[in-house]
Amino acid sequence: MNEPQPATLKAENEQLKAELAQVKAATNQYLQNVAHQLTAPLGAIKWSIEALKDPRVPLSRKSKLLSSIYSQATILVHLIKNFALMSNLEADLELGQFREKPEPIDVMKLAINLANDFQPQASEQGLKILVDEVAFSNVFGSKRLAIEKNLVAQAISNVLENAVKYADSDGTIRVSAWSDDSHVGIVVESSGIPISDKERVNIFARGFRGAAARQKVAAGTGIGLYLASRVMTLHEGSIQLETSGRVSRFALIFPRKRLR
Q1: How many domains does the chain have?
Q2: Spatial separation of the C-alpha atoms in residues 190 and 175, rounded to whole Å
Q3: What residues have CB less than 8 Å from 160, skipping those under 6 apart?
Q4: Is residue 5 part of a domain?
Q5: How far, in Å, CA of 218 to CA of 166, rounded?
Q6: Do residues 72 and 38 make contact, with C-beta atoms less than 8 angstroms apart?
Q7: How many other β-carbons are positioned within 10 Å of the β-carbon of residue 115?
Q8: 161: burial class by Cβ within 10 Å (0-12, 13-18, 19+)?
Q9: What b-and-e string marks burial along 227-245, b requiring 16 or more CB atoms within 10 Å of the CB?
């Protein structure tokens, strides 16, 4: 057997060093984004609390500050849940099963609760989040969906958070339900930054952020939609994106056999 020549070994070593440098740079950038995303809401909460303590601040202003604190706390909790979810979710996928047993969930109530959680954040940008209860009633009726509630709640939250961040000001984010003969779905639709055909191909990849998204919100981890897609895979479903101009329609699709 021929041994590798010194020149070949040197070239391979240089290639490995270059790849390691790229990984290190990407890791550092990711950690900087994570730190920024955690620091921003914490800073806003601290500033708001300090303003609340000031007796010169009028009551009407304090009411808005409390709403802002709630909004920033929602962002913070959401980020921490995403980071905590990553390792557990990957372990579940490797095992091919849930850590917790799926249970029948009223998905309309779940959608309403999540919309209420994000409404203060949306209101700061002049946005409304509307849940189409008629569509949910038509699709699900009295039936419930057998899911792992915390995972699906996080997946919906990730889509809602993106909608709030990237939607046009003074717009409406609509949450509705959809079905065909073999599937049922939860749909989040909003009008905001356009998503190109090239970006659509990679939008559910880990760490991916489109050019327009980076321009509007500089910091970001690019894990929200990735985690949502992994949650749907675990539920034998999928997450799909349809676009038309500035309108984006994300659908979390489950097999109809999960209805109870």
Answers
A1: 1
A2: 9
A3: 114, 115, 118, 129, 173, 175, 188
A4: no
A5: 12
A6: no
A7: 20
A8: buried
A9: bbbbbbebbebbbeeebee
Estimate the crossing angle of helix 59-95 against helix 224-234, to 10 degrees.
50
What are the backbone angles phi and psi of residue 155, rounded to the nearest 5°? -65, -45
Are the CB atoms for 71 and 124 separated by under 8 Å? yes
Q: How far apart are CA 16 and CA 171, in angstroms?
A: 49
pLDDT in tens, 20-33: 777 666 556 555 66
Long-range contacts of 255-260 (CB under 8 A, 24+ apart): 255/182, 255/183, 256/179, 256/181, 256/182, 256/183, 256/184, 258/102, 258/145, 258/146, 258/147, 258/184, 259/140, 259/143, 259/144, 259/145, 259/146, 259/184, 260/104, 260/143, 260/144, 260/145, 260/146
Residue 183 lies in a domain: yes
**Position 134 pLDDT exceeds 90:** yes
Q: Of the candidates 239, 200, 207, 211, which has an alpha carbon nearest to the alpha carbon of residue 224?
A: 207
**Rounded to the nearest 5 degrees, what angle is found at the Cα of 194, between the Cα atoms of 249 and 30?**
95
**In-domain check, residue 75:** yes
Structure tokens at 19: 């790849």
0.70 surpassed by pTM: yes
Give pLDDT tens digits for 187-228. 999 999 999 888 888 999 887 888 787 787 756 667 889 889
CATH number at residue 137: 3.30.565.10
80 burial type by CB count under 10 A (0-12 exposed, 13-18 middle, 19+ buried):
exposed
Q: Give the domain extent around 32.
A: 11-258
Instruction: Tell me the C-alpha distance between 192 and 163, whole Å.
Output: 8
Beta-strand relationship, 172-179 and 128-131: parallel
> Is 216 within a domain?
yes
The amino acid present at 199, given as its one-letter code, is: E
Return the residue matching tokens 């980020």.
79
